[in-house]
Design a protein that fits this description.
Keywords: ATP-binding, Kinase, Nucleotide-binding, Transferase
Protein name: non-specific serine/threonine protein kinase
Enzyme class: transferase
Structural class: alpha+beta
Helix content: 25-40%
Largest sheet: 6 strands, antiparallel
Number of helices: 20
Bound molecules: adenosine-5'-triphosphate
Order of helices and strands: EEEEHHHEEHHEEHHHHHHHHHHHHEEHHH
EC number: 2.7.11.1
Strand order of the largest sheet: 1-2-3-4-6-5
Number of strands: 10
């Protein structure tokens, strides 16, 4: 067990994400006044130990300390409470309430999609958490099922949003240097992917993707390289699944608008989803059905969305200027010529994804338009500075490569460097199919499905989704030489055959020893040699087999007659 500060002891890893490792830990002594929750000795907590690049970057440590009050004051029934922040040598850690239960990503994988009513009610609670944080000026920026923990609450599942502020910490010059991708391609809002100014509307986009995934089992845009997925966020329309009723689709589609100004506020989203859940349930009355059908009117945008600090930084190359309203067509001018005769826009996939392939994002990136302040190519304006797209996409590629390479890396001795595996109790397996649907096509389900409690005490090891592990510059241990197989051709049964032969030889030798060295010959009254005796026995047995064969043949013949 490794101490963290003087107050906490790490016990076992729960899982690892892009920004660090989460541990189950125990409180050693009551924390000081600087902690939001002092805690009691012996209490169990969860501690996210941020990865080393974050902890080694002085800017981030400063930001971490500056934002501690924001992180510590975020309290809401649907937000995982941050109890304390620890800065100790090269270690940065967030102490949180421990949530016993799976995360939504894992739950979806094991149980399949939710019913539309269940999805609406669960997302409504997430929207409540977002509304509270947006009112406090905090934007999550990395909303995805893996960041929603499902707490067991008197038999019901209670979604709790975690990782607030982490994306903001990670989005630092330090990480830009190491080309770390901040965000997850499948959940990134178009404006984030483009490096435009971001507001709380990015979380609403994330909520739209999450809802889509809850009812279908997968996010609307995926299946290709990171570049292709980002491109789809910019220009593709989500395909409507046939199982989603009209009112719920109205809400999802509004959340997924490319223009952030057209997305609803978090508060309106929560309200609208509850109206939808009532109106599409089996017990809905005509007034509730009518209210759900006109849900579009409830989805007013936020007149004063919370801004993401730094996202309008002029060094981030924002061709439309900080604070300018988003024009969906403007993406065309943002993805300029690749040398072809006409203008190349976001709607033209061949222009954005030329034949060089997504494996080389720097080659895919078209040249920046000339003459815009702060952009590469302009004399005297940091000509070497890469475009945000280039950084993000190269980072996404690096991240994939890293994941593949690090499958071979052996863990170090320090538990903080060891690759952890999430250990959670396995839920009761359920068939991977959507729940039966009733009137209006959807069951009345006032709460999302219950999480089946573990059936046994033995925890099941859970390998978290592949994420980047240690920084690329860390020395890797040499790979163990591959064990040469004694059966290189992999002939089935060869091992068994060898075993049998070996056994026969042993029996033969043992028999000979007994024959020669024991008084066995005298007892059975023979002077034959061992070999002679064996061949007599063999002849006798083959004689019996021959007679048996004749007998069977005769019987068969007489039966046929
Ligand atoms: N407070 C908590 N209590 C219990 N388990 C937690 C807690 N916070 C996170 N976990 C678990 O720890 C694991 C890693 O969490 P983390 O937030 O680092 O990963 P992630 O969300 O997949 O990655 P990312 O850093 O990219 O957001 C997840 O499986 C999550 O379920």
């Amino acid at each position: 067990m490794r101490p963290v500060g003087s107050k906490y002891l790490l016990e076992e890893p729960l899982g690892r994400g892009a920004t660090g490792t989460v541990w189950r830990a125990r409180q050693r002594e009551t924390a000081g006044a600087e902690a939001a929750v002092p805690g009691q000795p012996g209490e169990t907590v969860a501690i996210k130990v941020l990865k080393e690049e974050l902890a080694n970057d002085a800017d981030i440590v400063m930001r971490f300390l500056r934002e501690r009050s924001v992180l510590l004051r975020l309290t809401h029934p649907n937000i995982v409470r941050v109890r304390d922040l620890v800065v100790e040598g090269d270690l940065l850690a967030l102490v949180m309430d421990l949530v016993e239960g799976p995360d939504l990503h894992r739950y979806l994988r094991e149980n399949g999609p939710f019913s539309p009513v269940g999805a609406a009610l669960l997302t409504a609670q997430i929207a409540d958490a977002l509304a509270a944080s947006h009112a406090d000026g905090v934007v999550h920026r990395d909303l995805k099922p893996a960041n929603v923990l499902l707490k067991q609450n008197s038999g019901q599942m209670h979604p709790m949003l975690t990782d607030f502020g982490i994306a903001r910490l990670a989005d630092s010059p330090g990480l830009t240097r190491t080309h770390e991708f901040v965000g997850t391609p499948a959940y990134v809002a178009p404006e984030s992917a483009e490096g435009r100014p971001q507001t709380s509307a990015v979380d609403i986009y994330g909520a739209g993707i999450l809802m889509y995934e809850l009812v279908t089992g997968r996010p609307p845009f995926g299946g290709g390289s990171a570049l292709e997925v980002l491109h789809q966020h910019l220009s593709a329309e989500p395909r409507r699944p046939s199982t989603v009723p009209d009112p719920l689709w109205t809400v999802i589609e509004r959340c997924l608008r490319k223009n952030p100004d057209e997305r609803p506020s978090a508060e309106n989203l929560g309200r609208a989803l509850r109206v939808v859940a009532e109106g599409i349930g089996v017990h809905a009355n005509s007034a509730q059905i009518a209210a759900a059908e006109s849900v579009g009117a409830l989805l007013a945008p936020d007149p004063m969305p919370a801004a993401v600090p730094g996202s309008a930084d002029p060094t981030q190359v924002l061709p439309h200027g900080a604070g300018a309203s988003y024009d969906p067509n403007a993406a065309t001018s943002y993805l300029p010529h690749t040398g072809g005769p006409g203008p190349v826009g976001a709607a033209d996939p061949t222009a954005v994804l030329p034949n060089t392939g997504a494996a080389d994002p720097t080659a895919v990136m078209p040249p920046m338009p000339q003459g815009q302040p702060g952009q590469p190519g302009q004399p005297g304006q940091q000509p070497e500075q890469p475009h945000p797209w280039q950084n993000q996409l190269r980072a996404a590629r690096d991240r994939n490569e890293q994941t593949q390479v690090q499958q071979y890396v052996n863990p170090d001795d320090d538990p903080l460097r060891r690759r952890p595996q999430r250990q959670v109790a396995r839920p009761q397996q359920r068939p991977q199919q959507q729940r039966p649907q009733q009137a209006y096509g959807y069951p009345q389900q006032q709460q999302p499905q219950q999480y089946a409690p573990p059936q046994h005490q033995q925890p099941q090891r859970y390998a978290p989704p592949q994420q980047p592990q240690q920084p690329a510059h860390e020395p890797r241990e040499p790979r163990q030489p591959r064990q040469r197989s004694a059966n290189p051709m992999k002939i089935p049964g060869l091992g068994c055959l060898k075993g049998c032969l070996f056994t026969i030889i042993i029996l033969f030798v043992a028999g000979w020893l007994v024959w020669e060295l024991s008084p066995l010959q005298e007892w059975i009254g023979t002077t034959k040699s061992y070999w002679q005796q064996l061949s007599d026995m063999f002849n006798t047995v083959t004689g019996w087999i021959g007679k048996l064969g004749d007998l069977v043949g005769n019987k068969g013949g007489s039966g046929g007659n």
